[in-house]
Amino acid sequence: MNTNADSADDSSDVLIVSDLMAFAAHNEDANVALVGNTYFIKGKLSHGLSFIAYTYAGELPSCAFGFNSHGVAFTLNSVPPTEGDNVRAGTGRNFVSRDLLEASSIADALAVHDENSISRQKRAAVLPQGLKIDFQSLLGDKEDTKYPIYVKGPTHYTLCTAVIDLNEKTLPIIEGNPKKGKVSRVFPCLQKT
């Protein structure tokens, strides 16, 4: 069964490419039980490729976001089946996202929109979007009480915000509301080897 409360863990993303800036930012939203049970994995494979990925305990890296030494960075959102969906078999998203960590380019994208995503997009459309701080504030927005962009309980929670800064070649991680900009960790983006 998939109720609104069950699907409120849809994460939020912002992607900006302009003459002034290029970055992607992502709120990782999940069940509150996952607070303190997430990890950064830094991997180097036998063929030389390396990556950093944010993942949940017991899961393949990454079910959230990551980047690799080919310069591929991604964020990932979950779109679980609804009560009426007849799901018999398919490719697990964790296998797909794990393969993204070894990608040298991304050729195809698929977007699935639900009521939550549409509501968040409408709210984002009315907020300022000129500077990087505006986008961090957008990801910290709680104005829509049914589908807030920044989620803080009782059952779902924004675990962190990742800002993939293509100009600075960094991945800052913000804990708490990204409007406050409290960076807890900064990873340098890996360079091609």
Please, could you describe this protein's structure?
This protein is α+β, with helices and mostly antiparallel strands and 193 residues long. It has three helices and nine strands, in the order E-E-E-E-E-E-H-H-H-E-E-E. Strands 1-2-7-8-9 form a five-stranded antiparallel β-sheet, covered by helices on one side. The chain is globular. The N and C termini lie far apart (46 Å).
Question: Which structural traits does this protein have?
Answer:
193 residues; alpha+beta; 4-stranded antiparallel sheet; 3 helices; disordered N terminus
**Biggest sheet strand line-up:** 1-2-7-8-9
**Mean pLDDT, all residues:** 78
Low-confidence stretches: 1-8, 108-113
From the spread of the alpha carbons, the general shape counts as globular
Question: Count the helices. How many?
Answer: 3
Major sheet summary line: 5 strands, antiparallel
> Cα distance, first to last residue?
46 Å
- Sheet-strand content, in percent, reads 25-35%
Could you say which structural class the secondary elements and strand pairing correspond to? alpha+beta
Helix residue percentage:
10-25%
Cα-atom Rg, whole angstroms?
16 Å
SSE string, helix = H, strand = E? EEEEEEHHHEEE
Q: Tally the beta strands.
A: 9
Topology:
Elements: E1 12-17, E2 22-31, E3 38-44, E4 50-56, E5 65-68, E6 73-75, H1 93-100, H2 115-125, H3 132-139, E7 156-165, E8 170-174, E9 183-188
Antiparallel strand pairs: 1-2, 2-7, 3-4, 4-5, 5-6, 7-8, 8-9
